[in-house]
């Protein structure tokens, strides 16, 4: 358009350029020079490409993958540090901390098998449905189930100690090992047999319509999750009424363990229940669902390490003692 010398003129961004669509609500700028000619280059910085649905979904998928890898790396690092601390600090090795230690171990194994799944599974492997890929899937699901059963062990211990007021001296380590490591094994074996006979494809990932073999292991996970919520309700009720004024060191430790469980159990539960939620057709809902689920799923191990180890006053006290002893030497 006709313009005065020295004036900067704005025009709407082009609808398309070299086959790429642009947002026409923004403007492109070009200066009319003092000699009456246009500047060789215009300012197209505000012209933004309109991503089509395929590009958008790919972009969000790649970001979600990055979040997943980052979260699992951070979680695995934190879990390994927590594992080493519980292994080295023998002075705090009571049953309560042994349960924490096993829960952390279960999360380490689950995170490790997640990396194995990501690094070995590809479309060709899925289609071939070889034995080793089915075993990897079975191992991943087994450690997934052990996470829930060790959280159930945490709930059982606290419920027994606080609500039932039994002496924790009567509780034995083997009881919790049976709950956390042994019970999930036949559940996964039953699931594997069901998959082998009714849904033996794609390395046992996903499920065909009308086939419900995955509920063989998902059902027990939901059950122990619901029982744990009942335990937690009873524990909080007792702590609020009967033990509020108690200041014994044991009660204080129970309170701290309950606080950790209050945070971690909903975290674990919300993440798992999201698998059953349909985010709907709304684009924003789907994007929020993808990112929220990726973040919670991948950072679970980090939160477990923080609440059951790094914020554990017994662990911190033992670490300080070790540090002072090392400095004195």
Automatic annotation (TrEMBL):
Q: Which GO terms describe its molecular function?
A: corticotrophin-releasing factor receptor activity; corticotropin-releasing hormone binding; corticotropin-releasing hormone receptor activity; G protein-coupled peptide receptor activity
Tagged with keyword Nucleus: no
Q: Which GO terms describe its biological process?
A: adenylate cyclase-activating G protein-coupled receptor signaling pathway; cell surface receptor signaling pathway
Which Gene Ontology terms of cellular component type are present? neuron projection; plasma membrane
**Family matches, as Pfam families:** 7tm_2 (PF00002), HRM (PF02793)
Key words of the record: Cell membrane, Disulfide bond, G-protein coupled receptor, Glycoprotein, Membrane, Receptor, Signal, Transducer, Transmembrane, Transmembrane helix
Q: Where in the cell is it found?
A: Cell membrane
Source species, domain of life = Eukaryota
Q: Which residues cross the membrane?
A: 61-86, 98-117, 174-193, 215-236, 257-277, 289-311
Question: What InterPro entries does UniProt report for this protein, alphabetically?
Answer: GPCR_2 (IPR050332), GPCR_2-like_7TM (IPR017981), GPCR_2_CRF1_rcpt (IPR003052), GPCR_2_CRF_rcpt (IPR003051), GPCR_2_extracell_dom_sf (IPR036445), GPCR_2_extracellular_dom (IPR001879), GPCR_2_secretin-like (IPR000832), GPCR_2_secretin-like_CS (IPR017983)
For membrane topology, the record states:
Multi-pass membrane protein
Main site of residence?
A: membrane
Instruction: Identify the SMART domains for this entry.
Output: HormR (SM00008)
G-protein coupled receptors family 2 profile domain span: 1-51, 64-312
Q: Which family does it belong to?
A: Belongs to the G-protein coupled receptor 2 family.
Matching entries from PANTHER family are given as:
CORTICOTROPIN-RELEASING FACTOR RECEPTOR 1, PDF RECEPTOR-LIKE PROTEIN-RELATED
Query: Which protein are we looking at?
Result: Corticotropin-releasing factor receptor 1
Gene source species: Cyprinus carpio
